[in-house]
Amino acid sequence: MEKRLPGKVRRAIKAKYHDIEPKAWVGKKGLEESVISEIDTQLKKDGILKVEIRKGAFISTDMDRGSIAEKVAELTDSELIDVRGKRFILFRPREGWEKYLKKLKLKEVSKERREEKPVKKVKLDIAQFRKKFKKGRE
Question: What is the mean pLDDT of residues 90-104?
Fold first, then answer.
């Protein structure tokens, strides 16, 4: 699965949402349609979700936690942000991926434009500068 978000955005999301409580669980039923639909509705509602993997999921799916997290992200069309222990964080923008990625690109372009502006050289009159700050001290 390709990563849509740049690393800087992923780190920011991880730092902001690392302490949220899990709102969905993958249990002994594994990756059934009901579990995926619940995760999907939670993502539509909040945009970000922490999911916990229970012991039964490992037994029923014969997968490790990383592959379960990747599979859930793939089935829900979301981005896997972080896997820590038996919990993982999913992100999907509420306005849709195209619109969200377009906003990110526009931010990068505007940042580049701001950096490209040449610096104006200002001739400084030292005598005037000293007078100005001498008045301020008195």
Answer: 85
Q: What is the pTM of this model?
A: 0.71
Token code pair at residue 125:
């009159």
Give me the chain's average pLDDT, please.
86
Q: What is the CA radius of gyration of the chain?
A: 25
Residue type, 109: V
Nearest to 60 by CA among 73, 76, 71: 71
Single-letter amino acid, residue 15: A
Q: For residue 10, which of 112, 71, 85, 81 has the smallest C-alpha distance?
A: 81
The pLDDT assigned to 106 comes to: 83
Number of Cα atoms under 13 Å in the Cβ half of residue 60:
13
Q: Write out the chain in H/E/C secondary structure.
A: CCCCCCHHHHHHHHHHHCCCCCCEEECCCCCCHHHHHHHHHHHHHHCEEEEEECHHHHHHHCCCHHHHHHHHHHHHCCEEEEEECCEEEEECCCCCHHHHHHHHHHHHHHHHHHHHCCCCCCCCCHHHHHHHHHHHHC
